[in-house]
Amino acid sequence: MEQRDLLRKIPKMDDIWTKIEAKEELKEFNESMAKNELRDVLQNLRTDILQGHADTFNEMRLLDDSIVNEVLFQCQKLASMQLRKVINGTGVVLHTNLGRAPLGDYVKDALWDIAKGYSNLEMDLDTGKRGSRYSHMKELLLKLTGAEDAIVVNNNAGAVLLTLSAITKGKEVIISRGELVEIGGSFRVPEVMEQSGATLVEVGATNKTHLRDYEKAITPETGALLKVHQSNFKIMGFTQEANMEELVKLAEKNDLPMINDLGSGLFLSLQPFGFPPEPTVQEAVAAGCDVVTFSGDKLLGGAQAGIIAGKKKWIQQIAKHPLTRALRVDKLTLCALEATLKLYLNPEEALVKIPALRMMTEKPDALEVRAEQLIYMLKPALLNNKTLSLSVVTETSQVGGGAYPTVQLESRLIRFEGEPQAVTKLERFLRQHQPAIIGRIQDNGYMLDLRTLFEDDFETIVKAIEGWTKLSAV
Asked: Closest Cα partner for 371 from 353, 397, 402, 404?
């Protein structure tokens, strides 16, 4: 059918609106909103016809009922929250696409108490005068890290940008070639440095950088030494890097600040749980680094933030920089981060109550027990489903979030196995479920990893599978 014939078939807006007004489901939406969505739907039809091939255009879209249903769908989509809960069955603990570190119940009451009303965000209740939003975190951070001073900004990339802008603008910053990393969203350390106004000076080779390489590069134009922890990759084999203590001594000898971008922000050593060595924030501070930057929502397990800790001289200089206001955090982030940090006053409590730490350190035997529990709950839901079989399998999980890149965590997964088409449809159905359930497809099977599932998720998963079974039977 030719374009002009299809265009003539598009119903008039008034005719469709009469049918929309008769729909009970659409009466809950604002009339102006519904009319706007109807205009958009009709205009999209015209555009698709004019830009597409008339002979392949689906004429079913021009039916009155199809248009009414599309308007209803768009209204529901507009009215519903687009940022919503997702059940993480991928096994990636710090999943960047799914919001990284989940927060525990410990933050719920505190967060809502601050969110629903007013707070002393920038008021000193002792003096009755204006205070600083950063003061709420300072004492706690200093106690936990051993630093002289600290400040919190929106994320770690912001923390690095602010630090370099405040301390090294117009100066040279020396960094190893092996540490010119790319972080999330394709942002690269050299680009962040360029934005700060600092000049990058690369030393050493990709796999080997010696202390003498830094020493030779120091000139009257040098503003700082920078070390960036390789948290999201590993160089294996023939390697060498200057250790932190050596770099600190070199910086002190030349009256330069030593800046250490730790990235992931580990507060507790996980070596007792079988993890390889990873520098902690406390170790970096104790080594004498002038400034240490790290994330709040990775290995620390809190809200998204960039934390800058170190010596008072440099932190105060950073705090006075104009970018500090542009990168500042809001009251909800501060509240969630403070509630998380307080748990570290008792490390044993932190390992149990901070979800990211608990997930990373949960033993396979405990995962096995939970897997069997979920299997027991799921079997009745799949009793009449002949397309999929159910089993518990052993696979590996990942830490994610650019942390512990080489670590594979033994885990237990629920595996739905069947024909590729059935598995694909199941994945799509669960992904579009409310709340969405995100798993992984592997070897013609759909799998949910127990490491990143909360027990509160089990009932939701069972009901979703029951829905899938009913749909498959139609």
From this structure: 397
